[in-house]
């Protein structure tokens, strides 16, 4: 039978676009398949904040941040906690990725036209010892133009290749099986879904109107993770993270269903570390949703008081922005699925950012004037909109009114005003001196020693009950599904492996479907800014390796 292409790529998200662009540049004929309409080209990356992990960058050096490959690798190992036989390839991928982030990554991206916001963010600060989890220094580089600007150069290259006839873009094609001849993967079978004009991210029809069978020398799986499929999230939920929450929000569209992972397994691929996952604890219900259960993550500064559902402060070092999974693990022991931020207007203006391209129109639209407006009084427009319309927000001039609002949101009198007042008053007393035994306030003082945080990210310490800093604000926080950290096991050429460790001929994988490399290069925890970067790195590796194999 004649081949329909040299390589078939399954999934038109960021890693699929990168792999396809690399294959086309090498002169290979590619069919790029996706079950969604053309409007969703770029997948989850389009919706992202565009944060990328870089090491010892010019942006860091301008802010007097001293970073190095050695420090970054120390942080990665302390966060990943590699401890399984299945971590052989993930560790190899992690080593290669950190070297890439400290080496050619920035120059490669700049050659494609990608630029960065000058202030480097500090995500996942850790709060433990030097060898533990977290970034020792700020490394979160926000792309100028956010997620769409990361996607654009690769989407453009793919469209140009399509115009030349090198690439075929086939949307509404859902793969249900990988075909093999003599043990080698040589094609795909699937269903053609009905045409649908659904806008980006919204639910599309699953009506089947036909089937298809395509053959090629190699197949690359770049179909993403499981974050939109809560049944799979709960099925893979690890015991170490406690009981899965009864109610979760989705940080990704519904089509992030994980079904292609099962298709690859049935063809002989090995899926490893499926119990490792990354879900956020600062999710708020989107008052203007695009997909079902649509949640937005707050990217918080360190000053908000973080309380459990009954008003108790979370234990050290579970402060805003320090240890995502440590906080998640604690929440699941409380008997409730939600927590609270209590803060002031002064804090929300300085410290609240919302994750996502659509929640940052100034950065996404590359508006210098809009970004400069963030230095003016008042929170950003999207944050203020959530404060006014978000079902998880309550605003009050005094604590008694705030507590009534908190209990009204949950429908239960879980917060005791007198107990919460004692907690806040004790915290406020600590501000009588520039030193303190309250480790959260110590962390705030430490954060403000970094110029970037002092300028635009961390409010000057103040009493929460100071009327001049008000009004008071409380935000109910929900668990927000996001990323699979495990995936299809791959070697450094992105070749998918069988259970015995040997390559499954003809099959490659990249992006979240491959745990961003190797079947889980993050190990147990992520350092943030490494999901988009993992898609870029593994998509490039898969495209180049598949091009060599099909020469």
From TrEMBL:
Keyword Heme in annotation: no
Occurrences of domain FAD-dependent oxidoreductase 2 FAD-binding (ranges): 6-532
Entry-linked InterPro entries: FAD-dep_OxRdtase_2_FAD-bd, FAD/NAD-bd_sf, KsdD_DH, Succ_DH/fumarate_Rdtase_cat_sf
GO MF annotation terms: steroid dehydrogenase activity, acting on the CH-CH group of donors
Alphabetical UniProt keywords: Flavoprotein, Oxidoreductase
Source superkingdom: Bacteria
Coiled-coil zones: none
Claim: RNA-binding is one of the keywords in the record: no
Name this protein carries in UniProt: FAD-binding dehydrogenase
């Amino acid at each position: 039978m004649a081949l329909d292409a040299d390589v078939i790529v399954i999934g038109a998200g960021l890693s699929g676009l990168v792999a396809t662009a690399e294959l086309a540049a090498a002169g290979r004929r590619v069919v790029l398949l996706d079950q969604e309409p053309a409007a969703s080209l770029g997948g989850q990356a389009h919706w992202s904040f565009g944060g990328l992990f870089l090491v010892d960058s010019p942006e860091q050096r301008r802010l007097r941040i001293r970073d190095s490959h050695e420090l970054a690798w120390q942080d990665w190992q302390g966060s990943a906690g590699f401890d399984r036989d299945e971590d052989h390839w993930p560790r190899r991928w992690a080593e290669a990725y950190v070297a890439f982030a400290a080496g050619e990554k920035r120059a490669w991206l700049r050659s494609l036209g990608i630029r960065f916001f000058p202030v480097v963010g500090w995500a996942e600060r850790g709060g433990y010892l030097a060898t533990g989890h977290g970034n020792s220094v700020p490394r979160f580089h926000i792309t100028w133009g956010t997620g769409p600007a990361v996607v654009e150069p690769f989407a453009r290259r793919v469209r140009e290749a399509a115009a030349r006839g090198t690439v075929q873009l086939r949307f509404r094609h859902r793969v249900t099986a990988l075909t093999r001849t003599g043990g080698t993967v040589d094609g795909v079978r699937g269903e053609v879904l009905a045409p649908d004009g659904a806008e980006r991210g919204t639910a599309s029809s699953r009506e089947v109107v036909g089937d298809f069978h395509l053959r090629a020398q190699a197949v690359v799986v770049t179909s993403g993770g499981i974050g939109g499929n809560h049944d799979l999230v709960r099925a893979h939920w690890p015991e170490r993270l406690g009981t899965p929450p009864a109610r979760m929000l989705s940080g990704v569209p519904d089509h992030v269903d994980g079904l292609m992972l099962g298709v690859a397994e049935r063809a002989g691929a090995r899926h490893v570390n499926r119990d490792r996952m990354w879900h956020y604890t600062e999710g708020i219900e989107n008052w203007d949703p695009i997909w079902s259960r649509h949640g937005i993550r707050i990217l918080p500064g360190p000053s908000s008081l973080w309380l459990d559902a009954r008003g108790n402060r979370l234990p050290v070092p579970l402060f805003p922005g320090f240890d995502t999974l440590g906080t998640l693990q604690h929440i699941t022991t409380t008997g409730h699925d939600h927590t609270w931020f209590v803060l002031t207007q002064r804090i929300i203006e300085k410290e609240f950012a919302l994750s996502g391209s659509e929640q940052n129109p100034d950065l996404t639209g590359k508006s210098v004037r809009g970004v400069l407006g963030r230095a003016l009084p008042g929170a950003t427009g999207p944050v203020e909109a959530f404060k006014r319309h978000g079902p998880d927000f309550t605003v009050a001039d005094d604590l008694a009114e705030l507590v009534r609002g908190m209990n009204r949101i949950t429908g239960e009198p879980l917060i005791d005003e007198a107990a919460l007042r004692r907690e806040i008053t004790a915290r406020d007393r600590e501000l009588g001196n520039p030193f303190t035994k309250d480790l959260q306030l110590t962390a705030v003082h430490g954060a403000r020693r970094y110029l970037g945080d002092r300028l635009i990210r961390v409010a000057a310490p103040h009493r929460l009950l100071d009327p001049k800093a008000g009004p008071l604000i409380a935000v109910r926080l929900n668990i927000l599904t996001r990323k699979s950290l495990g995936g299809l096991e791959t070697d450094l050429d992105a070749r998918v492996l069988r259970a015995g460790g040997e390559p499954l001929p003809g099959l490659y994988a990249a992006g979240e479907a491959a745990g961003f490399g190797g079947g889980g290069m993050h190990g147990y925890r992520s350092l943030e800014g490494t999901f988009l970067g993992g898609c870029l790195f593994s998509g490039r590796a898969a495209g180049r390796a598949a091009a060599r194999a099909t020469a």
